[in-house]
Automatic annotation (TrEMBL):
<dbReference type="InterPro" id="IPR036162">
    <property type="entry name" value="Resolvase-like_N_sf"/>
</dbReference>
<dbReference type="InterPro" id="IPR006119">
    <property type="entry name" value="Resolv_N"/>
</dbReference>
<dbReference type="Pfam" id="PF00239">
    <property type="entry name" value="Resolvase"/>
</dbReference>
<protein>
    <submittedName>
        <fullName>Recombinase family protein</fullName>
    </submittedName>
</protein>
<feature type="domain" description="Resolvase/invertase-type recombinase catalytic">
    <location>
        <begin position="1"/>
        <end position="68"/>
    </location>
</feature>
Amino acid sequence: MDLNKIVSTLNEKGVSVCFIQDNLTFEAGNNSPMNALIFNMLGSFAQFERDLIIQRASEVRERVKKQGKTPR
């Protein structure tokens, strides 16, 4: 969400944003609906991955606590 807001704010100020690795360009005043879709999908997958990492780390900490050890 934050990245989406940053790109939108920059576009409103007349700045074009280009993601070289993903070959996505967001031009001020002229955005492709397909680019927006891909951008939002990539953001959703990134958030999903972060959430999974947090969940797994939490599960490991709980398992370590049950074994009587101190989690790092």
